[in-house]
Amino acid sequence: MGEAVVVRNKQVILKDYVNGYMKPSDMVVTSDNTIRLELPKVEDGLILSKNLYLSCDPYMRNRMGNVVVGTYVTSFTPGLPICGYGVARVLDSTHPDFKKGDLVWGVVNWEEYSLITDTTSLIKIQYIDNVPLSYYTGILGDFVFVSAASGAVGQLVGQFAKLLGCYVVGSVGSKEKVDLLKNKFGFNEAFNYKEERDLDAALKRYFPNGIDIYFENVGGEMLDAVLNNMRIHGRIAVCGMISQYNLDRVEGIYNLHLLILKRIRMQGFLVFDHYHLYPKFLDMIVPLIQEGKIAYIEDMVEGLENAPAALAGLYTGKNVGKQVIFKDYVNGYPKESDMIVTSDATICLELPKDDGGLVLLKNLYLSCDPYMRGRMSKPFEGTYVDSFVPGSPISGYGVAEVLDSTHPDFKKGDLISGSTNWEEYSLITNPESLIKIQHTDVPLSYHIGILGMAGMTAYVGFYEFCSPKKGDIVFVSAASGAVGQLVGQFAKLYGCYVVGSAGSKEKVDLLKNKFGFDEAFNYKEEQNLGAALKRYFPNGIDIYFENVGGKMLDEVLPNMRLQGRIAVCGMISQYNLDRHEGIYNLVFLLMKRIRMQGFIVIDHYHLYPRFMETMLPLIQERKITYIEDTVEGLENAPAALVGLFTGKNVGKQVVAIVHE
Ligand SMILES: NC(=O)c1ccc[n+]([C@@H]2O[C@H](COP(=O)([O-])OP(=O)(O)OC[C@H]3O[C@@H](n4cnc5c(N)ncnc54)[C@H](OP(=O)(O)O)[C@@H]3O)[C@@H](O)[C@H]2O)c1
């Protein structure tokens, strides 16, 4: 045997633990490392891989911090390569399950070649004909959990998922069934839920990186634990809730807010609606991928050199006269005194010319949004935005004028919208996330409302998640707010019958007389929400645009019609509670085949141009009405923000620092 080849091994190394937004410079690409392209034959169980595709996933930001508690993944080690999901080819193997030439997907290091000593995450790729290998870092590499998995349905679901290349874990009620799942049905893992005192801990053990697909057969406590462990964009197919069928009162589900945080789709179905599809299912899915008939969009960068920027690109954000400083993490309802307005900071109103890529902003309008409450809490698992930093200014969406710029895309005098700080002037070090305002023929503040996040949320939520049909009966909660007022008007323009709920008589009048809702009611005056819904929806609801959560959601569920859609946009009634209220009526998802899907607008900004094309004419032709509630001056910003949670605002809450 000739000398084994030793080659340079390009790697992406984490320099040090990251605080705040990550930057490409937090990682360094080096070729200092060398690797021998043959394994020592004396050591069993090793794999040498050539890495082909790497997946950039948001959870990797958690691994870059020095996190000790509260995370479900371990931190990366500074000085060593980062790791994540990837597709690789086996170059050499002393492991009985893998041989030279095999294609595998699983956890690999961000480097050209990896010596893999822990092969537990690796899965052999079976389908390669016309299936892009990179799909295995996404659509085909899903982590699937099936409850009641040895049952007639569960055993088949697990095997379908395995055939598709998923990693499948099942839960069952005995040791014998656990053995069946692993040895007969080919599940990757299985556990006896009756022996687990802490279901959440058990799921974390089997899914350290979370669950993509949950096939729900049991409901109750298991569903709550699963919600906690779902990954972003997860899907829950509600097939049954057997644990609840014999209870006088079903158990409450407390983690439904995670539908939003994690953009989860949860849908009930009954098989007799779909019998025409059943025989075709197995034959259908793999050929569809092979023939390229299933669309799967990738954002692919070439080479390890570009990997740090690609990963950092998953996140946006950051940045300083007068400022609104966040004092400390908040529990319960936020108060004005949780923020302090100071004039202690100074800022030079000219940028150093030798420092490229900076933009200096004079902030004009700031947006108050309910999601900012989440940022006032201590960092918690599963959140999609960073917490505010105690002692630093609050940040959020704003409209601003560029005072100075060393970034080629922006020049002095430009007007922008995007993420900025609650202060008079802000130095933006990552201006790529700012949007240059093209349309100055509408009030500038519109760019943080009807033409900004609130407008996009209403547009995406209604058109992409409600599947509207002419004549549909639509219910919108928090209907006079920034999002709700627009959703209701979109639905009216579509030909739907629309009812809204809001928290005062003034708001109810606005809904009916200004926004054109067919009906509206003050939920605070209704002793029995269920009865109120029956009054306004004697024939049920086709579409519920969910903004509030809690009791309203629980009462809406039994009032939904067959095949109803619930777009879960927000749950503001729950944001300030230590423990969320339980939802007891989820079984109606199943009985009425309801699709309930959480979404977060930031995932849908590729639709922004189409949204602008729709929205601008509607505003210009006065086909849509939009109400703002504007306070003047940074001094009044804290009160405006906390007012969202008591319903003080009437319409979109805006803070004007300087009028244009
Ligand atoms: N998924 C996303 O990407 C996304 C994006 C933007 C907003 N959202 C969500 O959408 C919802 C509406 O946001 P928005 O910007 O339009 O806010 P907003 O409605 O302008 O302001 C919040 C309104 O919520 C109502 N509210 C507050 N506490 C409540 C409670 N306990 N029960 C019922 N209603 C309550 C109040 O009106 P009343 O007087 O009617 O009570 C308040 O005026 C929020 O849940 C928000 O988190 C989600």
UniProtKB/TrEMBL annotation:
UniProt keyword list: Oxidoreductase
One GO MF term: 2-alkenal reductase [NAD(P)H] activity
One Pfam family matching this protein: ADH_N_2
Domain Enoyl reductase (ER), first and last residues per copy: 359-655
Domain of life: Eukaryota
Listed name of the protein: Alcohol dehydrogenase, C-terminal
The organism of origin for this protein: Cynara cardunculus var. scolymus
